[in-house]
Amino acid sequence: MGVFEKAIVDRERIVELIPQRSPFIFVDSFYGEKGGEFCCGFTPNDRTLFTKMGYLYEAGIVENMAQSAAASTGWSCRERGESIPVGYIGAVSDFELYKLPVAGIEIKTFVRFCGEFGGISLVETESRQGDDLIAKGKLKIFINENSVK
């Protein structure tokens, strides 16, 4: 996974790239793209949905992965001057959870698009908190071309 130092889209502007709105936002920064890999950040807190006893649970991690893919798509579309499509999780596979992330510490999620077929994007993700790999998985995301942001 590449090194991404400084966010180029912050918490206040992230909603320009994703269709989700509060309280269902699980990405709060976009770091950019290097070599076909995108990076997004998210710092959960005790008020974040799917957070209990100081940890973000599986549903929040999967949603973070999906919204990281959405923010990456939103960034790419905006750079090309295109409308931003709305996507929906169609399937999650090969999901591995190594440890629950601690609230209050940023999670960096790395996204690599593996292909697209018939309006479905295939995405590989890896989430880290500091140097620790916390989860990885693959997503199939259905892109609704008729519903653009």
Could you explain the architecture of this structure?
- By secondary structure, the chain is an alpha+beta fold.
- It has one domain (14-148): Hotdog Thioesterase (Thiol Ester Dehydrase, Chain A).
- It is built from one helix and eight strands; from the N terminus they run ββββαββββ.
- It has one helix at residues 58-80, and strands at residues 29-34, 37-42, 51-52, 55-56, 85-97, 107-117, 120-129, 132-148.
- The chain has a six-stranded antiparallel beta sheet. Strands 3-4 form a two-stranded antiparallel ribbon.
- A hairpin with a 2-residue loop joins strand 3 and strand 4 (55-56).
- The longest helix is centred in the middle third of the chain and has 23 residues, at 58-80.
- The N and C termini lie far apart (29 Å).
- The mean pLDDT is 93.
CATH architecture: Roll
Largest β sheet strand count, sense and barrel closure: 6 strands, antiparallel
Q: What's the gyration radius in Å? A: 14 Å
Q: Provide the residue-averaged pLDDT.
A: 93
Tally of extended strands? 8
Helix content: 10-25%
General shape: globular
The secondary-structure element order is: EEEEHEEEE
The CATH homologous superfamily is called: Hotdog Thioesterase
Secondary-structure content class: alpha+beta
Low-confidence stretches: none
Bin the strand percentage. 35-45%
Q: What is the overall number of helices?
A: 1
What's the CATH C level? Alpha Beta
Strands of the widest sheet, in order across it, are 1-2-6-7-8-5
Counted up, domains total: 1
**CATH topology, which one?**
Thiol Ester Dehydrase, Chain A
User: What is the CA-CA span between the terminal residues?
Assistant: 29 Å
